[in-house]
Write a structure and sequence with these properties.
73% of the residues lie in helices and 0% in strands. It contains six helices and no strands. The radius of gyration is 16 Å and the shape is globular. The model has no long low-confidence stretch (mean pLDDT 91).
Amino acid sequence: MMGTAKSVLKYLLAFFFVAAGINHFWHPDFYLKMMPPYLPWPAALHLLAGLCEIVLGVLLLIPRWQQLAAWGMIALLIAVYPANIYMALNPHLFSGMNPTALWIRLPFQFLFVAWAWWFTRDSVPSTKR
């Protein structure tokens, strides 16, 4: 049962990452507004983040690359966290979003980190000899 649930959750996480990555290319203006002004090259950074999300989501589904992809997801989630904070601090830039929701979503980033971390571990439990 645990193996099936973990497998389903792996595909779901991969889907979220690929979908978010594609969204960077479909709605670049939204992501550009998220970029804190102190970061250089906002257009390049948001496209790089989108590309990384797509690649990491796909790599998560390849057993040989699963652990590396999961660590990459964790690094990316941490790297983009300042953009989420910037959103919460500047709700006027995101008129279509509830300002309270911008704050509530911040802790969910840590749930995504924990979710990705689950896939940094071997799927098959090791046995002691």
